[in-house]
Design goal:
The chain has 157 residues and is an all-alpha fold. It is built from 7 helices and no strands. It has one domain.
Length: 157
C-alpha cells in the first residue's frame, strides 16, 4: 500500500513539473535554434515544454493519477470487504490510455476549429487548456465508466 501511495505522489510531482515546463518555457527560440543546430537536450526540453506535446504528457499523467487514486480507493474497499484485489497494472494502463484519448479528442477539435491553434498561445489559454484536459483525463482514469458513457453516445462506438 505504501508503494502505491508513493507512486501516486510521484505522478503528482511529475504532473506539476511538466505543467511548469509548459507554463514557463518559451519553446519558440529553442525550436528555431533546433532547426539550425540539433542537440538532444534542447529536443527533450522542447518535447516536454512545447504546448501540444506538453498537454499530451499532462493528459497521460492525469489519467494515470486518476487510475492510481481509483486503485488506492478500491484497495482500501477490497481489504475492508476481503475480496480479491484488481491488478494495479491494468488500472494504471487503462487510466493512462483514457487520459490520452481525451487529449486526442481535444487535438482533433483544435485543428478542426483552427489551422494553427498553437502559434500564439497565451499563458492564460495554456492554463485553461492544461487544467481542463487534465481534469477530464483524471476523471477518465478515476471513473472509466464515465468515458464509456460518453463513447456510447457517439454513433458507431
Amino acid at each position: 500500500m505504501l508503494a502505491r501511495i508513493l507512486v501516486a505522489l510521484l505522478v503528482v510531482v511529475a504532473w506539476l513539473i511538466v505543467f511548469c515546463l509548459g507554463a514557463f518555457i518559451d519553446t519558440n527560440p529553442l525550436r528555431k535554434g533546433l532547426s539550425d543546430n540539433f542537440n538532444l537536450p534542447d529536443f527533450f526540453l522542447i518535447l516536454l515544454a512545447w504546448i501540444p506535446t506538453n498537454i499530451a504528457f499532462l493528459s497521460i499523467l492525469a489519467g494515470l493519477m486518476g487510475a492510481l487514486c481509483r486503485g488506492l480507493l478500491r484497495k482500501v474497499e477490497l481489504e475492508a470487504a476481503l475480496e480479491k484485489p484488481v491488478r494495479k497494472e491494468d488500472e494504471a494502463l487503462g487510466g493512462s490510455i483514457a487520459g490520452f484519448m481525451f487529449y486526442m479528442a481535444f487535438m482533433a477539435g483544435a485543428f478542426v476549429m483552427m489551422d494553427q491553434p498553437f502559434t500564439n498561445t497565451t499563458e492564460a489559454q495554456y492554463y485553461r487548456i492544461a487544467g481542463s484536459i487534465s481534469f477530464i483525463s483524471f476523471i477518465a482514469g478515476f471513473r472509466p465508466d464515465t468515458l464509456r458513457r460518453i463513447l456510447d453516445r457517439i454513433p458507431g462506438f
